[in-house]
Design a protein that fits this description.
With about 600 residues, the protein is of the alpha+beta class. The chain is built from 20 helices and 19 strands. Strands 12, 13, 14, 15, 16, 17, 18 and 19 form an 8-stranded mixed beta sheet that branches. It has a 5-stranded mixed beta sheet with strand order 9-8-7-10-11. A 3-stranded antiparallel beta sheet has the order 2-1-3. Strand 16, helix 15 and strand 17 form a beta-alpha-beta unit.
C-alpha cells in the first residue's frame, strides 16, 4: 500500500527547533505550533490516542504539514506568536486570548511617550520587540525613566495649546519625573535629544547611557545617598548582563524581504522570509524546475518577481545572497556580516531543509526521478561524457600475501546490484602485489564481458591511487577499451579522485552526493572483498590438515566439523565416536591418520 503524502511529509521533517503549520483539504492554515524538535512534536499528534475531542478533530482535518526552521526555541516562540496573530488559525484557541508578547512603543507625537504595549498599531509610532518577558521590558523602561525625565500624560501638547496655558504641571513634575513640557518648561529639541538616546538603548547600544548611569551612581555615592546609588547599581548590572536579543533579528530591520536560493542539476528552491518590526511574519519556499541551463541569478530574479506578486509585497529593500537586477525602485542588499547576514543565513537554511525534505519524499514516491537527478549530478561533477548508469568498482584484499582475492561490485542507477557482484581469486600473481593483482582482475572481468557480449559499464572506479589506476589502464589497453569506458581511482586518505594522464587529483565537496555514491561503492567493494578473503582464510585454517587424509572428501570434513567443532577434538576422538558420524571405513582412515604409532 503506497504511503500517503502526509505520512511522507512527517517522515522527512527535521529534528530541529522551529514552527510547524497544519493545513486542511482546502489548504487553509488551521493550526500553528512551536517545538524544540519539529519531527518528534508533529509525529506525536499521529502516534498516540488523544483524550481531548478538539485535538482528535484537528488531527482528522490535517492534510499537509509545513515547517519553518529557526535557530533557538526562543525564536520559535516569537515566530509562533507572529504567525498566529497574523493568520488566526482555527484551532489555536488557547492563543487567541489577550495573552501576547510585549513591545515598547515610542508614540508618534510632538513630545513622544515611551510605554509598554501588547498591541501594535500602524499609526507611524515606533515599536521595539517583541520581548519574551515583561520583566525585561520593565527593566529597560525603569532604566530609561531613571536616566530621562519623560511625560506620562496623554495630553495633546501642540504648540498652540501650550502657549495658551491650557495645561498645568502635575505631580510627576513635582516628583522630578517630568520636566514640564506641558507648560513650556522643556523645549521640543531637548525632549527629542532624549528620545534619540532612548532609541539607541532599545536597539542595544548602551554605551552612552551606561556612561551617564555611572555618573549618576557616583553622584549619589558622593552625596552619601547610598540607597539610591545601590538601586542604580542594580539596574546597571542588569543592563550590562542584558546581551541576548529578544527579537528574531534586529528590530530596526523592518519591512524587508529576504530571498535565498539552493539548486541542483534539475531544480532550484527559493526561500522567502518577510520581516516586520524585526520578526518573521511569513515564510515560503518555491520549487522551480529547470528547463534549460538557467543560472541561479536568473532563477532568483524570476522567483522574486513571482513571490512578491503572489504575496502582494511592497517592501522597498530586499536581502539576497548575490546581486540581482530588479529595477531602480527596489534596494538590493547583499549582507556580509551582522544581523542582516544572520537572517540571510536563516533563509538559506530553510531553503536547504526544504530541498532535503523534497529529495527524501521523491526518493520514496518517485525513485526514477531521484535516480535521474543523481546520475545527472555525477555526470557533471566527474566531467563524464555520459551518465554513469552502470558503475563497477574494484578492490584487492590480502593479508601478508596469503589468499589474495579481489572484488568487483556493481551499481546501477546509483544503487547496488548485488546479483552482479563478482569475486576473483588471484591466479597469476605471487605475493602481495596489489598492482599486478589489479591488472589481472580488470583484464579477466572485461575479457569475459567482451567474450559473452555483455554490456560494459560507463564508469570504472579503482580503489587506490595512481599505481592501481595505471595497472587497470594496462588491461584496458590490451583489450582495446581505453577511451571507451571512463575510469578513475580514489585514494583512501584524502578522497582524491585520479584521472588517467592527469597528475592533479580532483577533490569533491565532502557533502557532495557524487562523493557519497563513490564512497558507497568503495565501501561495498571493500566489505565484499574482505568477506570472501576471510572465508578463504577460515576454510584453509580449519580444513588443510583433514584434506591431507587420503580417502576423506569435503562432505566427510563438513560432517566431522559439525560434530566435533575443532580439528583437535577430531584428532582425540575415539574410533567408535568417529564411526557414529562418518561410518566405519572413513572413521578408520581418520583414526589411523592420528594414531600412526
Amino acid at each position: 500500500m503506497p504511503k500517503s503524502s502526509l505520512d511522507i511529509q512527517i517522515k522527512t521533517l527535521p529534528h530541529l527547533p522551529g514552527v510547524y503549520q497544519y493545513f486542511d483539504k482546502d489548504n487553509r492554515l488551521i493550526y500553528v505550533g512551536k517545538a524544540k524538535d519539529i519531527k518528534k512534536r508533529v509525529s506525536s499528534y499521529f502516534n498516540k490516542h488523544h483524550d481531548y475531542g478538539k485535538t482528535r478533530v484537528l488531527v482528522k482535518n490535517i492534510v499537509s504539514v509545513k515547517h519553518i526552521v529557526v535557530e533557538t526555541e526562543n525564536d520559535a516562540l516569537l515566530l509562533e506568536n507572529n504567525l498566529i496573530k497574523k493568520y488566526k488559525p482555527k484551532y489555536n484557541v488557547l492563543l487567541k486570548d489577550d495573552k501576547s508578547y510585549p513591545w515598547i512603543c515610542i508614540k508618534k507625537e510632538r513630545f513622544p511617550r515611551v510605554f509598554p504595549t501588547r498591541r501594535v498599531i500602524k499609526d507611524g509610532s515606533e515599536y521595539f520587540g517583541p520581548y519574551t518577558s515583561m520583566k525585561t521590558v520593565k527593566t529597560l523602561l525603569g532604566l530609561i525613566k531613571g536616566l530621562y525625565q519623560l511625560r506620562t500624560c496623554n495630553y495633546d501638547l501642540s504648540e498652540a495649546k501650550i502657549e495658551s496655558g491650557k495645561y498645568k504641571v502635575c505631580l510627576e513634575y513635582h516628583l522630578g519625573n517630568c520636566k514640564g513640557p506641558c507648560e513650556g518648561y522643556e523645549t521640543e529639541e531637548e525632549y527629542q535629544s532624549n528620545i534619540i538616546a532612548i532609541r539607541e538603548i532599545l536597539k542595544g547600544n548602551f554605551k552612552d547611557s551606561l556612561q551617564q548611569f555611572r555618573i549618576q551612581m557616583r553622584k549619589h555615592a558622593e552625596a552619601m545617598q547610598f540607597e539610591e546609588a545601590q538601586k542604580i547599581k542594580e539596574k546597571l548590572e542588569v543592563l550590562e548582563n542584558y546581551q541576548a536579543k529578544s527579537t528574531i533579528v534586529n528590530p530596526k530591520i523592518s519591512n524587508v524581504d529576504v530571498f535565498s536560493i539552493v539548486s541542483d542539476e534539475g531544480y532550484a528552491y527559493v526561500n522567502f522570509l518577510q520581516l516586520s518590526y524585526g520578526s518573521i511574519i511569513r515564510s515560503h519556499t518555491l520549487e522551480l524546475k529547470k528547463k534549460l541551463e538557467e543560472t541561479d541569478t536568473q532563477l532568483l530574479a524570476l522567483a522574486i518577481t513571482e513571490i512578491r506578486q503572489r504575496f502582494n509585497s511592497n517592501s522597498k529593500e530586499i536581502y539576497v545572497p548575490f546581486p540581482v537586477d530588479l529595477g531602480a525602485d527596489i534596494k538590493i542588499t547583499v549582507p556580509k556580516l551582522g544581523d542582516k547576514k544572520s537572517i540571510l543565513d536563516l533563509s538559506i537554511r530553510n531553503a536547504k531543509y526544504y530541498r532535503m525534505d523534497k529529495l527524501k519524499q521523491i526518493k520514496i514516491v518517485d525513485p526514477d526521478r531521484h535516480a535521474n537527478r543523481i546520475m545527472a549530478q555525477m555526470k557533471a561533477d566527474l566531467l563524464l561524457s555520459e551518465e554513469p548508469r552502470h558503475i563497477e568498482c574494484f578492490d584487492n584484499s590480502n593479508i601478508q600475501g596469503t589468499n589474495p582475492v579481489a572484488a568487483c561490485v556493481v551499481f546501477k542507477d546509483g544503487k547496488p546490484s548485488k546479483k552482479d557482484y563478482r569475486h576473483f581469486n588471484i591466479k597469476t600473481v605471487v605475493g602481495p602485489d596489489d598492482f599486478a593483482s589489479m591488472e589481472e582482475v580488470v583484464y579477466r572481468r572485461y575479457k569475459r564481458l567482451l567474450d559473452e557480449d555483455q554490456p560494459l559499464p560507463q564508469l570504472i572506479i579503482i580503489d587506490g591511487g595512481k599505481g592501481q589506476l595505471s595497472s587497470a589502464l594496462k588491461s584496458l589497453d590490451v583489450l582495446g577499451l581505453r577511451g571507451t569506458i571512463a575510469i578513475i581511482g580514489i585514494a583512501k586518505r584524502l578522497e582524491e579522485l585520479f584521472y588517467p594522464d592527469d597528475p592533479i587529483p580532483l577533490y569533491l565537496d565532502k557533502k557532495s552526493e557524487t562523493l557519497k555514491v563513490i564512497q558507497h561503492l568503495r565501501n561495498e567493494a571493500h566489505r565484499f572483498g574482505i568477506e570472501h578473503h576471510r572465508n578463504r582464510r577460515s576454510k584453509g585454517a580449519l580444513t588443510t590438515e583433514l584434506e591431507n587424509i587420503s580417502g576423506v572428501g569435503e562432505q566427510t570434513i563438513v560432517d566431522l566439523m559439525k560434530q566435533f567443532k575443532t580439528v583437535k577434538r577430531i584428532a582425540n576422538a575415539k574410533l567408535d565416536e568417529l564411526e557414529a558420524v562418518v561410518g566405519v571405513s572413513r572413521a578408520r582412515k581418520v583414526y589411523n591418520y592420528y594414531h600412526k604409532e
